[in-house]
Amino acid sequence: MSVAASDSMPIVQIINQTKCLFCVFVYVLMSCIVLVPARAETEQGYPDFALESAGPDPCFLNDQFKDFPSASLNAPSYHSHNNGFSFQQSEDSSPHEDAERSSWRENLRLSGLFDVYGSMHLQKNDDNEQLKSLFQRIRAEARYTFRSRQENGFDFFPSPDPYLVLSIQSDFLWFGRKNSYSDHDLDLYEAYINWDEGAWQLRLGKQNVRWGKTDQVSPVDNLNAQDMRRFMLAELEDRKLPNWMARIRYFQDQWSLEGVFIPFFQSHELEYFGTNWAVFRHARQDIQDSDLPKDFRNYVRNIRVREDKPANTLRNAGFGARLAATFKDVDLAVSWLATRDPMPGVSSFPIDNLDVDSILSLEDVQDRLDQLNLTPGDIEVGYPRTRIYGLEFETVLGEYGLRGEAAFFDRQSFLQSDLTSVRKEVLHAVLGMDYTSEQNWYINLQLSDQVIFDYQDEILFFNRHNVSAMGEISREWARGDWETGLKGVYFLSDKSSHMNPYITHTPIDSLDITLGLHLFHGARDTVLGQYRNNDQAYLRLQYYF
């Protein structure tokens, strides 16, 4: 929910979020105490446990590993792990008291994240442009493992043990100072149960699921919607929004089969008006501040967006399947997904005869004012169904990692010059490689080609072929306490670009402090050039506990 904010809003929200963090931890801890049945008999100390065909640690701090099976994982002392902690038995307590207390304490692990990102624009380009921004998120997670126990020689839970993951996230987004905007949410982030039985794995609940192999731009990865309120400034894994789904996997030595069922649709999270990254930017406020006729200004002020979101019925559910196999040293996978497009398509715009070449602006309205026809109604958007067919691979060639993926979309929505959307078939392929040297250099390079079939000239920002090069080069130094790097995207098809130089300092374990720039370049009618007024310097602090 978006609300108007005063200049002091960020300070107030930071105080509120600190309170939220305390409440979150109390809630998670008390929930685990109440829900977990006490057991009288436990092993002394911290038992080793095998995960075998289960994915390893599901803690969100290790999300990059949780989708891959592991042969074994021994964790005799959780309390020494940097990314979380568990309860340690008191040296002064008796064995009987230890057994009573450790019945649930040794199986519970808590972890969390505090992430704050503040930015300032490098120059002012528009009267309603927001020159400062603040994004803050606090996440608390609890994992409870249901240990196996023997009763009359029978294991209650065959190894590996089932586990429950519950996390809550509070996030706050503010743009200001002038024409300020704020959005604050406290939500259940992830909540799922994972059960492994032989070659089978079942995971039920609200979760993130990763398909695909490439980094940042992954055409095959479409199971979760994304937070697009700040475009793509955040990393892919940070943008993804967990959704309720059922996931079942069957593992064999050289192949695996996976099925997913998504009962509830979730769209991308974005804004239409009122921010530097909104679909129509500040067009409504710019028109209000102009000398256009009063009737026209009043009409535009009352325009609203009406979303036609599908009902939560089986008819609107999403489902898909993925088959993965290993041939010699190459990992391959094919997938199919039937879902709805999370990016809204505009079916109706209440101002007829518009003909823009980029984002809607005051100049576009002034140039065609005599030709515009105001129609009753709102901006209507919908989320049509789509089918996605994916192919992915990954291998190692000497010291280089090589990966790629391609996805065919039977329909994707693109905005046109009249500000309504058209749907087209799309083929998107990405090929990438990475390399890590002994001197701590990391190099990642990807090439992308997005092809729009039956292309129309009225489509905004995109060409028939959208070819881009993406890359990252970084190096750690001073024993890993510092890292400098450069990330970037360059579209060969329209000559627009985004560059992100940065430097990160890690003064203590689990704390990263990053200073960097986001620089956009290109014509205003290009994919990245439309954001050329959003150049910014930023400071980010991340603390894991």
Task: Explain the overall architecture.
With 545 residues, this protein is mainly beta. Helix content is 11%, strand content 43%. The chain is built from six helices and 26 strands. It is globular and about 75 Å long.
Mean model confidence by pLDDT: 85
Distance between the termini: 29 Å
Helix/strand/pairing class, anyone? mainly beta
Work out the helicity level: 10-25%
Strand content: 35-45%
In oligomeric terms, what are we looking at?
A: single chain
Shape: globular
Low-confidence segments: 1-8, 26-93
Main pleated-sheet profile: 18 strands, antiparallel, barrel
Specify Rg, calculated over alpha carbons.
25 Å
In short:
The chain is mainly β.
What does the secondary structure layout of this molecule look like, with pairings?
Blueprint: E1 2-3, H1 9-35, H2 95-105, E2 108-121, E3 132-145, E4 150-151, E5 154-155, E6 163-176, E7 181-197, E8 200-207, H3 236-239, E9 243-251, E10 255-262, H4 283-288, H5 294-301, E11 305-308, E12 318-327, E13 330-340, E14 345-348, E15 351-352, H6 362-367, E16 373-374, E17 379-382, E18 385-397, E19 400-415, E20 421-436, E21 441-452, E22 465-477, E23 482-491, E24 497-505, E25 511-521, E26 536-544
Parallel strand pairs: 11-17
Antiparallel strand pairs: 1-7, 2-3, 2-26, 3-6, 4-5, 6-7, 7-8, 8-9, 9-10, 10-12, 12-13, 13-18, 14-17, 15-16, 18-19, 19-20, 20-21, 21-22, 22-23, 23-24, 24-25, 25-26
Quickly list its features.
mainly beta, disordered N terminus, 545 residues, globular, 18-stranded antiparallel barrel
